[in-house]
C-alpha cells in the first residue's frame, strides 16, 4: 500500500496535444467525507487521483449507492491573474459518476458520466473547492465497464470518484477550446475552435520553422514537403504551435498559444495481392497483432502509480512484437494515448459498456453456439430504458470527438459481446459521420448484425479455423487465448481459459496456439488477432505480466520470435 506523502502523483501535463505554459496540478492530498442521510461520517485524507476503493488512495473504502462523497481542498493559484484579461479553469480528467462542483459553497457545475473530462471556471485566484460525487454502482445503467459490486471471473471492483488528474490553467479572455486535425500521407487539414464566435486571425508554427496564417473556425490545409508517415515501426510526429493573433477589437488583450503534434497516417480496409480482405495502414496491408488491455493496476484499479506505468506496458508489448493494444471497455487519460502515439502502438478503442443486468443467454451462449440476435430486441440486451440508451449514445459520440486527434487510434469498437448493445447499424452510421478516417468493429465477438467492414470473432473454447465471411467482409479475431499461469500459488484459484503451470509452459502453449491456428489463418486471409491479455487483473491470471507488473510470465524472446514469424 502507498503511504500518503507530501507529493503530487501523476503531475505530468495531462493534455499533450493541446498544452499551454500555464499549468497547476491539483492532485495530492484532499479531505474526503462519506455522507449518508445528510450526516457526515468519518473524515479521511485521500490521495487524488486514486479512487477511494483503491489502496493507493489511502482510504480503501467502497462508496455505497446511498452515500455521497465530498472531496474538499483549498486552492490558491500561484500566479497573479488580471481577471479583466485572463480566466482560470479547473479541469477534471474523469470522475465516476455523478459530480457536483462547488466553489466557495456555490454550485457551479453538475456532470454525469465517469469517463470523459469536464471543466469549470473559477472567478478568483483563491477559493474553497468541493466536489460531491455519487455512484450508484450496478444500478447505474449507463457506463460502468468491467466494474461490479460483486467482482469475480471477468468482472472487477468498482471505481468511484476522482480517478484522473485534476488541474488548473490560465487562459486569455479569447482562447482556443480545441482543434480537429485530419492527417493523410502528404499533410493535414486543421480547424481551430475558440470560445469566441468570430473568426480570429491565428498562425500555426510548424516544426519551429514554417508559419501558416489562417482564421479560427475555418478548415486550413497544410501540405508537408517530403512527408514522413507515422507507423508503429516508425512513430514520427510533427510538432506545431498555434497562436491567436492580438484581437483587433481588444488590442490590449493577451494572445492564447497552445502546443500540439500530428502524425501522418491513414487507416482503412482493402485487398492484398492475393485478393484477401485486409486492414490497411498508409494504403498498404497491415496485420494488427495485438493484446487486450484492460487498463487496471494493482492497488490503483483504474489509475496507475505513475505515468511510467503507461510507458512500461506499451514498451513491454512492443518488446514482444505486438503492434496493437485493444483498450477494453475503458477510456484512458490522454497521456496513455500520447505514449502510444510517440512510442508507436496502434489503438483499438472500446466504448464503455452499460445497460441493465446482462442476460446469460445473450452474452454467453453465442460463444458456444455462434447464434446472433437482432439488437433492436432491447429486452434481450438489457436496454429497455430509452433515456439510458440516449445518454450512452451521446457519450459514445463525445468519446469519438474527445479522442479524434489521437494519432495511433485506428479502430472504434462500440459494442462488445452484446453488453448493452442496441441499434448498432444506426450508431455506426452516426460514428462514421463524425469520423470517416477510421474503421469500426460494430460488434466485437458476437451479436453480429451483418453490417460494416468486419466479421469480428471471439474464440476461446475450441480451435480457431479461418472461414471467409459470407458477406465479403474483413475477418478479424478480436479475442482469443486467455491462457493463464498463476505465479501466486497461495492465492485463491484464478480465472483462465486454459491453465499452465510455469512460465515455460505458458510460453510454449501460446507459441503453439499461434503456430497451429493464427499463422495458418493469416495466410488464408485473417486480418487481425488480439490475444487475451496484456496483464493479470484481480482474479484473472491470463496476462503476459502479473497484475503488479513485477514479473513477466512468458519468455519474451520466444514471443518476439513468434511475432516475427507471424508478421514476416
Walkthrough of the structure:
Helix 2 (334-343) links the parallel strand 26 (324-327) and strand 27. The mean pLDDT is 93. The chain folds into three domains: 24-172, Jelly Rolls (Sandwich); 176-262, Immunoglobulins (Immunoglobulin-like, Sandwich); 267-479, TIM Barrel (Alpha-Beta Barrel), CATH 3.20.20. The two termini are 44 Å apart. Helices cover 17% and strands 32% of the residues. The strands form nine sheets. It has an eight-stranded parallel sheet with strand order 29-28-27-26-25-34-31-30, covered by helices on one side. The chain has a six-stranded antiparallel sheet with strand order 3-2-4-10-7-8, with no helix packed on it. It has a four-stranded antiparallel sheet with strand order 1-14-5-9, with no helix packed on it. It has eight helices and 34 strands. With 568 residues, it is of the alpha/beta class.
Give the gist of this structure.
The protein is an alpha/beta fold and 568 residues long. Helix content is 17%, strand content 32%.
List descriptors.
568 residues, alpha/beta, Jelly Rolls, Immunoglobulin-like, TIM Barrel, 3 domains, eight-stranded parallel sheet, six-stranded antiparallel sheet, 8 helices
Helix content: 10-25%
Q: Please provide the count of β strands.
A: 34
Strand residues, percent: 25-35%
Low-pLDDT segments, ≥5 res: none
Radius of gyration: 24 Å
Q: Look at the helices and sheets and give the structural class.
A: alpha/beta
The CATH class name of the largest domain reads Alpha Beta
CATH topology (fold) name of the largest domain: TIM Barrel
Amino acid at each position: 500500500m502507498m503511504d500518503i506523502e507530501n507529493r503530487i502523483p501523476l503531475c505530468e501535463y495531462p493534455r499533450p496535444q493541446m498544452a499551454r505554459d500555464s499549468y497547476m496540478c491539483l492532485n495530492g492530498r484532499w479531505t474526503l467525507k462519506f455522507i449518508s442521510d445528510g450526516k457526515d461520517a468519518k473524515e479521511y485524507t485521500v490521495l487524488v487521483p486514486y479512487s477511494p476503493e483503491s489502496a493507493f488512495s489511502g482510504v480503501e473504502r467502497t462508496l455505497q449507492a446511498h452515500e455521497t462523497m465530498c472531496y474538499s481542498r483549498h486552492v490558491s493559484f500561484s500566479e497573479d491573474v488580471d481577471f479583466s484579461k485572463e480566466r482560470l479553469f479547473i479541469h477534471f480528467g474523469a470522475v465516476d459518476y455523478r459530480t457536483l462542483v462547488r466553489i466557495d459553497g456555490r454550485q457551479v457545475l453538475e456532470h454525469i458520466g465517469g469517463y470523459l473530462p469536464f471543466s469549470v471556471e473559477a472567478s478568483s485566484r483563491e477559493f474553497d473547492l468541493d466536489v460531491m460525487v455519487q455512484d450508484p454502482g450496478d444500478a447505474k445503467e449507463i457506463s460502468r465497464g468491467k466494474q461490479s459490486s460483486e467482482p469475480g471471473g471477468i468482472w472487477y471492483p468498482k471505481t468511484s470518484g476522482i480517478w484522473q488528474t485534476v488541474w488548473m490553467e490560465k487562459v486569455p479572455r479569447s482562447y482556443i477550446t480545441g482543434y480537429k486535425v485530419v492527417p493523410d500521407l502528404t499533410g493535414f487539414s486543421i480547424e481551430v475552435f475558440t470560445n469566441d464566435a468570430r473568426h480570429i486571425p491565428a498562425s500555426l508554427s510548424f516544426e519551429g520553422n514554417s508559419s501558416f496564417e489562417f482564421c479560427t473556425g475555418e478548415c486550413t490545409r497544410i501540405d508537408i514537403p517530403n512527408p514522413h508517415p507515422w507507423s508503429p515501426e516508425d512513430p514520427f510526429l510533427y510538432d506545431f504551435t498555434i497562436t491567436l493573433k492580438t484581437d483587433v477589437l481588444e488590442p490590449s488583450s493577451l494572445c492564447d498559444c497552445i502546443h500540439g503534434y500530428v502524425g501522418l497516417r491513414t487507416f482503412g480496409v482493402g485487398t492484398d495481392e492475393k485478393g484477401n480482405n485486409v486492414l490497411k495502414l498508409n494504403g498498404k496491408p497491415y496485420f494488427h497483432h495485438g493484446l487486450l488491455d484492460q487498463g487496471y493496476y494493482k492497488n490503483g484499479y483504474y489509475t496507475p502509480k505513475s505515468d511510467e506505468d503507461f510507458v512500461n506496458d506499451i514498451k513491454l508489448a512492443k518488446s514482444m512484437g505486438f503492434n496493437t493494444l485493444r483498450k477494453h471497455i475503458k477510456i484512458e487519460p490522454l497521456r496513455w494515448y500520447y505514449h502510444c502515439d510517440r512510442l508507436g502502438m496502434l489503438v483499438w478503442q472500446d466504448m464503455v459498456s452499460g445497460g441493465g443486468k446482462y442476460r446469460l443467454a445473450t452474452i454467453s451462449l453465442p460463444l458456444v453456439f455462434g447464434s446472433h440476435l437482432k439488437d433492436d430486441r432491447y429486452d434481450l440486451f438489457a436496454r429497455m430504458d430509452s433515456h439510458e440508451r440516449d445518454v450512452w449514445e451521446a457519450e459514445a459520440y463525445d468519446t469519438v470527438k474527445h479522442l479524434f486527434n489521437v494519432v495511433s487510434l485506428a479502430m472504434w469498437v462500440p459494442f462488445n459481446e452484446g453488453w448493452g448493445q442496441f441499434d448498432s447499424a444506426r450508431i455506426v452510421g452516426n460514428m462514421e459521420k463524425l469520423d470517416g478516417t477510421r474503421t469500426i468493429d460494430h460488434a466485437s465477438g458476437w451479436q453480429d448484425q451483418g453490417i460494416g467492414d468486419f466479421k469480428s470473432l471471439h474464440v476461446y473454447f475450441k480451435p480457431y479455423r479461418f472461414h471467409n465471411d459470407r458477406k465479403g467482409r474483413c475477418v478479424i479475431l478480436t479475442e482469443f487465448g486467455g491462457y493463464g499461469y498463476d505465479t501466486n500459488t497461495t492465492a485463491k484459484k484464478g480465472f483462465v481459459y486454459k491453465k499452465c503451470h510455469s512460465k515455460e509452459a505458458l510460453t510454449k502453449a501460446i507459441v503453439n496456439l499461434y503456430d497451429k491456428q493464427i499463422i495458418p489463418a493469416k495466410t488464408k486471409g485473417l486480418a487481425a488477432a488480439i490475444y487475451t491479455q496484456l496483464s493479470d487483473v484481480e482474479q484473472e491470471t491470463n496476462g503476459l505480466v502479473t497484475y503488479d507488473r513485477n514479473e513477466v510470465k512468458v519468455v519474451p524472446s520466444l514471443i518476439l520470435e513468434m511475432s516475427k514469424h507471424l508478421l514476416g
